[in-house]
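Table S2 (text version). Query chain:
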Amino acid sequence: MKLFASDLLSGMAELPAKSGGWGMLLNASDEAQRLKPASVKAIQSINDSFVVFSLTNSASTRGFAFVLGLVIGCAGISMVLADVALGGVLSREDFWPHLAGAYAVLLLISGMFIAWSVTSVRRTLSPPVVLSRRLRKFYCWIGPKAGWVALEYDKAHPVSMVSRSYSVAGAATGYVLAVVDMDASNRSIRSYVPLAQPYRDYRAPEMVWEFIRAYMDGDLEDLPAADPMPPTDDARADFALLDRRLFGDLIDDRHRVKPGVFPMVYVHVVGALMYWFERAGFWIFRVAPKPDWPQDIQAEMSAANFSSSFRVRERTDSERLAYTGKLGYLNRRWLVLGAICTVIVFMMFAVLGVPPWFSALNRG
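Corresponding structure-token output:
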């Protein structure tokens, strides 16, 4: 059985023996270093026992389901309530059985959308991928049926996968660091685990992999300080998380949009469209149930304090303010984009849910 943590390799049954248009094979654990190591914002936390990788987009689809399900479900209920409250539909002679059946179907569909929304919060959510330094294994939650998959660090094959995305702001090519477990006899893929979000710089996945190699087996003095990341359990850091999750390296370390037409257009268009879906995803990540950690790492993952010999770069003033919700220009940018997204989401509801109230009022 093949287990996939992403669909990037879903069309490939075997891992190619050479780099190509699909992506690039990275250094095995015993090969010479080609690029200098760097965390490139892929490491959420690091200590002597394990590394927690930054979140992928696992909660973004939950946020989309939560918002869209709630909006469409409430719009459908609003349509029924308008006819009941103002249209006098219950007193009409033809209400039973024909109109009653139509309204029942509408309520059923609306209820299904609301259930979709509620389920997005209540379903077990995958935690970030963890690399245990003690056990030399990657741990990734695949889903309720497959459970946890543990990939041995010394046997996993690191790759940089090419990922292409398309949006209203244009097309973009990214490069995703992942590890693959394959059958050595025929290179068939048994499991695939992405470790970080797509990077626009093709060198970034390899730099992160070199960071991991240095963490596992290298000299601590050669390991550069990891980038400090916004906390995922503090809602005050949501704007900073939005920047990193949606825009990546289009935003600099001060949370300023980088110069250029494309970064400016991309940030404002995508931000205005995705604000509430991503904010909902962050909230769901904090409140949704998580699976129990595997027995062999449960104790260390549940510990309150960790000793660490690894350096984390000191936060800049901008990062410190952004992570506590006090960076003025970041807050203003996202408040504007959030307001635009609020209008867009409300219009999704208003197109279906508001007109029946006026038509029912006119009939009355």
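Notes on Table S2: Confidence is low (pLDDT under 50) at residues 1-7. Residues 90 and 96 are 9 Å apart (CA to CA).
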